[in-house]
């Protein structure tokens, strides 16, 4: 059973690489590589993985028509890249929320606090 609480498995879940057999698109080391490149951001790692899939799709599939079926690799790649862009946007929004400082310092946390109205006088000691 796959543990989707693991970072690499979360990336796998986001990119739709859900085959648990030998047909996985990326192995665990590759997913961990994406996580390393993305500094641990699961959504950014998934976006990078999707970009790799999109590039592969564009290079391999191109436009193929046989009998009554056709495949357009560039359209598929464009759709994948849009998905990757939305993952990056979601990652940025989450990072921006974490960067907002909801607290402010209204008083000093110095080791030697002064009483209200008291002045600090230099007595030659540090």
Commentary on this structure:
The protein is mostly helical. The chain has a domain at 7-92. The chain has four helices and two strands, in the order αααββα. It has helices at residues 7-15, 28-37, 42-61, 73-99; strands at 63-66, 69-72. A two-stranded antiparallel sheet has the order 1-2. A hairpin with a 2-residue loop joins strand 1 and strand 2 (69-72). The chain is elongated. The N and C termini lie far apart (62 Å). The mean pLDDT is 82.
What is the CA–CA distance across the termini?
A: 62 Å
Low-confidence stretches: none
| Class of secondary structure makeup | mainly alpha
**Strands, count:** 2
Placed side by side, the strands forming the largest sheet appear as 1-2
Mean of pLDDT? 82
Helix content: 40-55%
Number of helices: 4
- Describe the sheet with the most strands: 2 strands, antiparallel
Attribute tags:
single chain, 126 residues, mainly alpha, two-stranded antiparallel ribbon, 4 helices, 2 strands, elongated
Describe how the helices and strands are arranged.
Elements: H1 7-15, H2 28-37, H3 42-61, E1 63-66, E2 69-72, H4 73-99
Antiparallel strand pairs: 1-2
Helix pairs in contact: 1-2, 1-3, 2-3, 3-4
Tell me briefly what this model is.
With 126 residues, the protein is mainly α. It has 4 helices and 2 strands.
């Amino acid at each position: 059973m796959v543990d989707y609480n693991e970072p690499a498995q979360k990336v796998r879940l986001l990119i739709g690489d859900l085959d648990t057999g030998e047909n996985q698109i990326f192995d665990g080391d590759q997913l961990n590589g994406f996580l390393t490149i993305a500094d641990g951001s699961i959504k950014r790692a998934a976006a990078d993985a999707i970009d790799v899939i999109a590039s592969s799709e564009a290079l391999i599939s191109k436009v193929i028509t046989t009998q009554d079926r056709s495949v357009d690799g560039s359209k598929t790649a464009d759709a994948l890249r849009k998905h990757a862009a939305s993952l990056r946007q979601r990652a940025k929004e989450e990072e921006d929320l974490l960067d907002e400082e909801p607290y402010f310092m209204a008083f000093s946390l110095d080791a030697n606090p002064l009483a209200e109205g008291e002045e600090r006088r230099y007595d030659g000691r540090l």
